What does this fold into?
Amino acid sequence: MQPGTSIEFLRDNEPPVRSQNTRVIAAALSCGCKPAEKAYSDTIEDTPDGPRRTVTWLMDGDAKAVFEPITEREEIPFGEVVKRFNSREWCMANPNHPISYLRAYYDNLNGLMDFVKKSTPSILIRRGNKTVVIPANCSPEIRDKMLAML
It folds into this structure.
């Protein structure tokens, strides 16, 4: 992360496939917002109350969503809505049309869902004031080295 960079985050304890935050991130990406570096974290921590999952999305706080006004009313039949929604070419040629935003959201949400379904939560361990996050897919040797630092 660059000095002076602004970061915004959304965090909750829901599985990312069910979380409203995943849908908010898909909508924000569809409107031109950008993810931060290492934009996603999914950890599980063993707490006295049982396992606690924390999912965090990081977004570039300096990126802005920009909306161009629609200047005239348009009425189109359902068949035309389907045709435009299914045409990536039409959406690319008309990026400020509501149908294009809906298609971008659809594509972004599907991409995020694929990503989170393939991702495995990391294990978060706290001992005193020290914390370590161990990737679920790391080797036993790396895990042991990380635990030794606590």
